[in-house]
């Protein structure tokens, strides 16, 4: 009996570890850059400022050039605007952002305006293709800026431009008004495939529902639904019925 109990304990112990979700991919930046957000969540929830682990699939990662140069007892900080990267991760992918070494003020100032880098797959050693967008420079205190909202508006605005200029399946119109939350809910729903649209509808009926495979479209749709007031939520639900 003691052996059986011991074996059962070992099985339960191993099962606890095998049940944990495995992180399938890694993204890393050099010390002259920082990772700000992963799918609009703080990078500290995924790892740290320089390396994060993510699941297999598409991810939106926000980085920026962030360099401190010291001369004597003085130091000077150089920061670029946040850069939004749309990356695709396969199982066991290890992507690294590669950037030139910065040692002078002139080099740092140039990188603040236009950061120079490439993204390399460490497994194959090849550079990869990726989509890049950069926030517009703003004056004033940077620590008071709501970067998450700025990134949402930038990606939504540019995606709408792409959709308007390219042929494709019919897309339900987005009502142009001051109701930003409603517009964003409609926009991300329109960006979703059939499975994700079904998941969004089910989640609205049961906010405890979690799809087997999530996506940025599902996460953004639910984010804006939670952010919206009751009137906008009802307007979105009515819009879905007509959809």
UniProtKB/TrEMBL annotation:
InterPro entries: UPF0319
Origin superkingdom: Bacteria
Keyword annotations: Signal
Signal sequence interval, chain numbering: 1-24
PROSITE patterns in the cross-refs: PROKAR_LIPOPROTEIN (PS51257)
Pfam families: DUF2057 (PF09829)
Family: Belongs to the UPF0319 family.
Name of the protein in question: DUF2057 domain-containing protein
Originating species: Marinomonas foliarum
